[in-house]
Each structure stands twice: as structure tokens, then as C-alpha cells.
Amino acid sequence: MSETHPAGRAENPQGADPPWWSRPDREATDDPFAPPQHDADTAQLPSAAYGASAAEQGAEWIFSGHGPLGQPRLDTPRRRYGAGLLAACVALALLVGGGACAVAGYIVADRNKSHVHDENASLGSAPTGAVDRPPDSVAGIAARLLPSVVKIDVSGGGQAGSGSGFVIRGDGYILTNNHVAELAGDGGRIDVRFSDNSAAGARVVGADPRSDLAVIKVETGDVPAAAKAVTLGNSDDVQVGDPVVAIGSPLGLSGTVTSGIVSAKNRTVVAGGEQSGQESYINAIQTDAAINPGNSGGPLVNSRAQVIGINSAIATIPGAGLGGSQEGNIGVGFAIPANQARRIAEELIRDGKADRPIIGVSLDVRYGGEGARISGEGEVDGTPVQPDGPAAQAGLKPGDVITALDGRPISNSDDLIVAISAHAPGDRVTLTVKRGNETKDYMLTLATAPGD
Questions:
Q1: d(Cα 253, Cα 249) in Å, to the nearest integer?
Q2: Strands 333-337, 159-167: parallel, antiparallel or unpaired by DSSP?
Q3: Is the pTM of this model over 0.85?
Q4: What's the pLDDT tens digit per position in 94-125?
Q5: CB of 157 within 8 A of CB of 185?
Q6: pLDDT tens digit string along 286-308?
Q7: Where are the beta strands (DSSP E) in 82-218?
Q8: Dihedrals φ, ψ of 405, to 5°?
Q9: How far apart are CA 116 and CA 11, in angstroms?
């Protein structure tokens, strides 16, 4: 019996019939190196009607950090063995060809060495050039930011994971995602590694699951001199199409730099809750810069090397991977705006917790119309509109439907929660409210959630 090799050819024992590929009567289509046919359906993505939202297409948000996701996992794409076999065939062909060339070269060299070898052979030296890069180039931005970005390894409760963070104060304060830090829990361990490969233990200063932000701290003496505090930019100035750079430790690969643009602003992203039981509501900046598990907590940076967002989540395509979803970059990543992160980080450093803004109403999450509906009387325990709360003082009533906040359209309850979360207690906002056939604007001042 003939032995089959990876390239798909068979050895021909002496005296046996000639191999099939050498038969003169074989068909021209019998190509031993032809790649296997692929099922057309394995390359299709879910279709969606023009203008359908990500939620309507079945997209899912997952955190891009390893906190609750555990160790990194490299999923093998389904049914990609055909391409692998073709690559193996090509590699083998190249190796065989190279061997044949080597033998031929040896014969020629042996017969006429003087015409093959040149004892004075030289291809010249490598050209010299400037290693400096423009400060607003990707390389220039990376050179300035990399020393301030850290890899964070977390363990606790029998689990381990990793994420990213960056220095926000020279005395050791580092900003990251809550879902990165929370894995440590009580009695867990957090280790920070800087770009110069120095490492230090860290402790949690404060965390806010609602915004998915946390501040950790290493001792001041453990901060390398090059790890300067980053500059937090004004995320309100961000425009769609602006170039951005993402820096972090995807899949544990520290110091990874990717680039792209701002794809959209004010994206409603609700994710998490695996560890804390508290979902995070993010008024996100969307980017196509490659973000993968482990990038969580790392900076999204503008062309002036200012941090305009904290990379936090990625969209996945259900059913695209062996594990049921494609948990990697598909060009749809999300970052927490720097203005929100600045306020919450300051509060976490001061008090260990962050205040949550509210308008003082209960929302009807089952409402299927456009907007966010305040629950009606008798639909919830207690009063749908809190007495003396901001909404009550402004004149809102049970059953009212909120359709916009400061001109930003509100499609559902999540939109309203995210839009409010982007503000701080004490901010004045304008709500557009529909009551029956009448639409009216109401101004109110956001209050602080009880217990915060």
C-alpha cells in the first residue's frame, strides 16, 4: 500500500504501476496541489437590513480585557484546514524547489568555481537614516506614550487574567477598567509591569462598576522615571474620522500599538456584570483601531498624544468562532470618553467611590416604542417619579416618554441611562418629553443617587 504524505502525493514502490499524476491519460484537472473546496456558507456573515442597529443584527458586546474572561484563548477559525493544507503544499513545493536549485548550483560550482563565487562579494552597507519620527505620526505618538502604559496581571478566586492601564499621576496612580481590577477581589493579587520590564505590586484605590473604571496604585518609588503621567484630552472635541492610536497588552502582548480612526461617537454600550453583578453603561467612542482581549484599560490616543478614551469593549459576531462567538478584533471597538474617566478617577482617588447622576424616575424597560418611558402608576413598587427628585421638580409625570436629552435622540431605556451617566451630579440637562400628542422640553438638574 502506498504511503500518503502531507502534500498529497504517494510514493511509488519499485515494480508498482506508475503514480496517478504521471499517467499520460490522466485528466488535466487532476491537480495534486489543488486546494480543497470550501463550503460557501462558512464565509458568510449575518445579513442585516440597511440601517439596522447593531442590537437588531444580533451583535454582542464583550469586554476586551481579560478580567472576567480568564486566560487568553486563540480560537482556530472554523473550517480553515483547506487553507492550511494549501500552505503546506506550497511550502513543500518551495522546499523541494530550493533543494533542486541547491543541487544544481553545487554541480555548476564544482565544474566552474571561478564563474560562481566572488571572494570580494559585497551588497553594500545598510543606508543610514533618521530614526526620529514626526510627533503626530503613529511612531511618534507611540514613543511618547509607551513608557506610561502598563500591563496588568490579576489573580484571585482561582482565576487569573490580564489587561492594560496607564499612569495618570507620577506618584503611582494608574487608571484601568473595573472588569480588569475586580478579578483580584478580596485577597487577590495585582501586578503591574512597565515598558522597561520592571514590575511592582498594586492595590485597588477605588472602583466603579457602573462606569467600568478603576484606579490602582503602586508605590511611588516603583514608578520608572520614563513613566510620566499621560495627558487626558477633551473627548468632547473628538470628531468622527479623527485618527487614533490604541496601546495595550492584547492577549498578554505588552506594548502593542494599533491605529485607526474614530468611527462614531455616543454609542450606547451595556456590558459586563459577570463578576460584580453590576452592568456597565458606556457612552462610548467607537473605533476601528484593533482592540482585543487584554487591551481593556489601555488608552485610546489622538494625534497630539492625548488620551481621549479608555479601551473597554469589543463587538462580537455570534456563532463566528468555535466557542460560539468571535472574541477578537472585527474593527468595532469601544472606549470610555476621557472626560467621564477624568471625573470618576478624581472621585475614586478622593473617596474610593464615584457619585452616580440620576433624574429620579423608574423606567419601563418593557416599553417597545421610540424613547424611554417612565413607568405608570401601579406598574412598579413605589412611586415612578420620586417626590422632590429632579424629574418631579421639573414637572415630569408617570407615563411620560423621554425622546431626547440635550438634543441627543433617545431610542430606549439604555440610551437614556447611558446619556445621563455621561454627566455628573449637578449638571443641568434638557429633556424632550412626549405626553400624549404633546411634546415639550423640560430643564432639570441631575441629583446624586442615594447611597453614593
A1: 5
A2: unpaired
A3: no
A4: 333 444 444 444 444 555 555 788 889 999 99
A5: yes
A6: 999 999 999 999 999 999 999 99
A7: 149-156, 159-167, 173-176, 189-193, 199-208, 213-217
A8: -130, 120
A9: 35
